[in-house]
């Protein structure tokens, strides 16, 4: 008898806690701490390279697909060779090249693999920059051999 009343009491306590907590309204923290500006981030994607390994002097075709609901300003291509700092390789002003089939813009760039003494990983990063200052980056990595 005591066991049944304990189980009944536990069930009633659980249901009361569930009922009372479901009525609790949380503070709208997010609404109070953001301001919508209507600005949009660009979207960019770097297609995979044909090969994962290239020799010094090879020309790599970098195909970028991107779009932005905001006004796009430019596309910047960076390289990172091994553990070195990221370095700007090229900067292209936005030129509309909209593809109806893909429903986005496409940009093809040529990148020449630099002379390297040893086998090293190279990371190419493309950054889409809107006129509002918002940016998005996409990267691909390959191996460079002497």
Provide the fold topology.
Layout: H1 2-22, H2 29-33, E1 43-46, E2 53-55, E3 59-67, E4 72-81, E5 87-93, E6 98-99, E7 104-112, E8 120-130, E9 135-145
Parallel strand pairs: 2-9
Antiparallel strand pairs: 1-3, 3-7, 4-5, 4-8, 6-7, 8-9
Binned, the helix content reads: 10-25%
Uncertain runs are none
Overall SS class: alpha+beta
- Taken in chain order, the helices and strands follow as HHEEEEEEEEE
Shape, principal axes of CA atoms? elongated
CATH architectural group of the largest domain: Sandwich
CATH topology of the largest domain: Immunoglobulin-like
Question: How many helical elements?
Answer: 2
Could you explain how this protein is built, in words?
- It is a single chain.
- The protein has 146 residues and is of the alpha+beta class.
- It has two domains: 2-33, no CATH class; 43-145, Immunoglobulin-like.
- Helices cover 18% and strands 45% of the residues.
- The chain is built from two helices and nine strands.
- The chain has helices spanning 2-22, 29-33; strands at residues 43-46, 53-55, 59-67, 72-81, 87-93, 98-99, 104-112, 120-130, 135-145.
- Strands 2-9-8-4-5 form a five-stranded mixed β-sheet, with no helix packed on it. A four-stranded antiparallel β-sheet has the order 1-3-7-6, with no helix packed on it.
- It is elongated, with a radius of gyration of 27 Å.
């Amino acid at each position: 008898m005591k066991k049944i009343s304990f189980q009944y009491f536990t069930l009633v306590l659980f249901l009361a806690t569930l009922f009372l907590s479901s009525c609790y309204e949380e503070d709208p923290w997010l609404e109070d701490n953001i301001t919508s500006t209507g600005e949009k981030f660009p979207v960019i994607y770097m297609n995979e390279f044909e090969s994962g390994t290239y020799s010094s002097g090879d020309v790599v075709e970098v195909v970028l697909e991107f779009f932005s609901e905001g006004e796009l300003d430019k596309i910047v291509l960076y390289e990172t060779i091994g553990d070195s700092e990221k370095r700007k390789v090229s900067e292209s002003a936005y030129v509309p090249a909209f593809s109806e089939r893909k429903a986005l813009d496409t940009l093809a760039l040529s990148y020449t693999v630099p002379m390297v003494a040893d086998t090293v990983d190279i990371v190419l990063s493309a950054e889409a920059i809107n006129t509002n200052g918002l940016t998005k980056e996409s990267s691909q990595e390959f191996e460079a051999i002497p």
